[in-house]
Amino acid sequence: CSDENSQCPEPSQQCRSPKPSDRGEIYELAKTACTKNSAKESHRVLRQLAEQVAELNTRANTQGKGRGDLNMEVLQAAADLLLGGEELGSAEATARRFLAAKVLDSFMGLRSYFASICNDVMEVDPQLSKNPRLVKALVAWEE
């Protein structure tokens, strides 16, 4: 991963681009998830969260496929693409970076959901698939 000269891709008219305020957060998540930082504690913690999200997706995501294979490798690949040194001028590179940013943005959506319920965990339905915000965040992650 290169930390310098990295930019989030330009927005597409067909897809929702991460909000400008999220771009810094996406970049920070990418720096944590990238291969270069795999020995750091923050990367290890992110890996554990990604593993738990993959397991949660198999149990709670009734609207999607409930895939359990969306793990740290997905985040790491997206981070490496987003922070990589590919030429920005290429349409293909721009598309790759846009998709990488979308992957990281959807994972950030899950983290936001978890943060929002941390003080209200008793409000979470034990039948996880009956928590619409959780299911929506998992579907976004899977897509």
Describe the structure.
With 143 residues, this protein is mainly alpha-helical. The chain has one domain. It has helices at residues 20-33, 41-60, 72-83, 91-117, 132-142. It has 5 helices and no strands.
Give a short summary of the structure.
The protein is mainly α. Helix content is 59%, strand content 0%.
Domain tally? 1
Number of helical segments? 5
Structural class: mainly alpha
Strand content: under 5%
**First-last Cα distance:** 25 Å
Q: What's the SSE blueprint?
A:
Blueprint (H helix, E strand, L loop, with lengths): L19 H14 L7 H20 L11 H12 L7 H27 L14 H11 L1
List keywords for this structure.
disordered N terminus, 5 helices, globular, 0% strand, 143 residues, 59% helix, mainly alpha
